Amino acid sequence: MAHIIVLGNEKGGSGKSTTCMHLIAALQRAGKGVGAIDLDLRQTSLFRYLDNRRAFVAREGIALPEPERGVLALSTRDSQADALAEEEENFAAVLNRLDQSCDFIVIDCPGAHTRYARMAHAAADTLITPMNDSLVDFDLLARLDPASGDVLGPSVYAEGVWKARQMRMKAGLKPLDWVVLRNRMAHVNAHNRARVGDALTELAPRIQFRIVPGFSERVIFRELFLNGLTLLDLRDVGQGSLNMSNLAARQELRDLLRALSLPNVKV
Amino acid sequence: MAHIIVLGNEKGGSGKSTTCMHLIAALQRAGKGVGAIDLDLRQTSLFRYLDNRRAFVAREGIALPEPERGVLALSTRDSQADALAEEEENFAAVLNRLDQSCDFIVIDCPGAHTRYARMAHAAADTLITPMNDSLVDFDLLARLDPASGDVLGPSVYAEGVWKARQMRMKAGLKPLDWVVLRNRMAHVNAHNRARVGDALTELAPRIQFRIVPGFSERVIFRELFLNGLTLLDLRDVGQGSLNMSNLAARQELRDLLRALSLPNVKV
Ligand SMILES: Nc1ncnc2c1ncn2[C@@H]1O[C@H](COP(=O)(O)OP(=O)(O)OP(=O)(O)O)[C@@H](O)[C@H]1O
Ligand SMILES: Nc1ncnc2c1ncn2[C@@H]1O[C@H](COP(=O)(O)OP(=O)(O)OP(=O)(O)O)[C@@H](O)[C@H]1O
Ligand SMILES: [Mg+2]
Ligand SMILES: [Mg+2]
Predict the structure, then answer these.
(1) For residues B47, B97, B101 and B210, what is the CA-based torsion angle, rounded to 10 degrees?
(2) Which residue(s) pair with A263 in the sheet?
(3) Rounded to the nearest whole angstrom, what is the distance from the C-alpha of residue A198 to the centroid of ligand 3?
(4) Do B14 and A14 touch (CB under 8 A)?
(5) Distance set, CA B20 to CA A117, B45, B50, B77, B173 (Å)
């Protein structure tokens, strides 16, 4: 049974696709068979990143690990109920196929509450929610009292995860491991980071997620997009000159992988 | 006729809601009547920001300018065609109502290609597209050749704007002013910023947008969210201690407003 990892957060630009790409790279380099599903069917940021990688390999003649892909199409049926039924069939079929050959299936969700995204959240063994170090992003997890900073109640994305957990329990699946990480953190902004950190620490036990080490704002996480590369590929492509920021980026990725405690993955 | 400003970018987390909130604040302080429509019907980040503002005013007894709101609901009809027809009626009704009392109507779009978002893009007199200083964000405007950096062709969001322009022309409306700004820029990353800047400069004449000054990554743009405040409100609430970053932030907002060249707005 492949272990299903979902990158989910309805908040846009929280780092789902970026984290997804780097997780795929890290798992492949740990020797695992990885399947990738891009549920952002319009933007397809993950598959674009992977297309760029494929083009780089073809152009430069350098071998790089590439995941197997699961491709899903949007139903064109006019009735919502019919469209849902068709997409549920597609989703199950793709998961079954990838399950045959993969140790891990990594699913990148869009920043929206689509039918496929809801299916992915119910199918996830590990749900990774990256977020900006921001009370605006936090607002999609829970509402805070402006005066006291206390958690007032869950917001729309947390409620969605709760529903997915319910579906999972009804289907008799093992519990979802929900992890939240902060992304694009800057060293400056210590006060804001403490406010967000405190809010997350208070919220975590209430809606059942654990907080794992995340990523700093580092241009290395995005400047290799056109070539489809990640920092883990730099040695293979002969750009192994790891400066301070890249070494730190490697460590951040390693710390995340360790904290995820994935089955049979030694870090 | 109220001038309609739309914040649009299918790419999530590009700064639509943040730019929207600060533009509303700036226009109100320039003495204009402002209407606000939040088309992110699930996250409602803009209306949450405004709700927090309203709660602050009630709690602290400090008067602050608040825009008029236009509220839209998602159609629950099962057929796509029926849902579209109902939503088109809702949209026109809300615009007509706000038009009576507002100089400007500001519309915040979600990071997705929804029916209401498409209507907003066709209705926009000014379309503001904020984006991260990133080739990943750029990828939603156009594809670049990885080797040469040349623009290969428009991507999904640029095509959406083109379709909106077509609808506008057929309806006999004046041309859309499409402006693109970079958001969350960091002083470090000069090389990456130059790459994105060059790509934007090459693309601008081809798909007909102009580039305007944007915003740096500054915690002042997000740390006041819980109280619904912007940096323009700090003097009114007695926190007028403008440090270097806040003064620079003010100037960035002023520079944007000037570059927008809005009717009857002196900056
Ligand atoms: N740690 C990081 N350092 C630097 N840039 C980053 C980092 N993480 C993400 N980015 C950049 O931030 C932007 C948003 O990231 P990304 O596209 O991964 O988010 P997303 O959650 O997948 O967005 P969407 O909701 O649109 O799918 C992109 O421009 C990306 O290149
Ligand atoms: N100039 C800035 N400086 C600091 N933080 C910023 C800035 N602009 C935006 N942010 C933060 O970046 C994140 C994304 O911004 P925002 O929510 O405005 O984007 P959006 O395009 O409306 O996203 P969505 O696609 O989810 O609607 C938020 O956490 C916000 O607080
Ligand atoms: Mg994405
Ligand atoms: Mg928004």
Answers:
(1) 70
(2) none
(3) 27
(4) no
(5) 27, 10, 11, 30, 23
pLDDT at A21: 98
Cβ pair A225:B139 closer than 8 A: yes
Give the span between the Cα atoms of A152 and A144, in whole angstroms.
Answer: 5
* Model pLDDT, residue B8: 98
Residue A8 near ligand 1, beta carbon < 6 Å: no
Q: Extract the residue ranges of chain A whose pLDDT is less than 50.
A: none
- Cα B65 to the center of its chain, rounded Å: 19
CB-based contacts of B196, cutoff 8 Å, min separation 6: B133, B134, B135, B138, B182
Strand-pair partners of A216: A185
Instruction: Report whether residue A230 contacts ligand 1, using a CB cutoff of 6 Å.
Output: no
Q: Closest-lying ligand to the alpha carbon of A45? A: 3
Residues of chain B with pLDDT under 50: none
| B2-15 CB burial, b ≥16 within 10 A, e <16 | bbbbbbbbbbbbbb
Beta-carbon contacts of residue A200 (< 8 Å; ≥ 6 apart): A138, A180, A182, A211
Contacts A49 to B, Cβ<8 Å: 136
Q: B130: which residues sit within 8 A by CB, 6+ positions away?
A: B7, B9, B14, B15, B16, B18, B19, B180, B181, B182, B183, B214, B215
Q: What is the pLDDT of residues A57-67, one digit of tens each?
A: 999 999 999 99
Verify whether ligand 2 is closer than 6 Å to residue A134 (CB atom).
Answer: yes
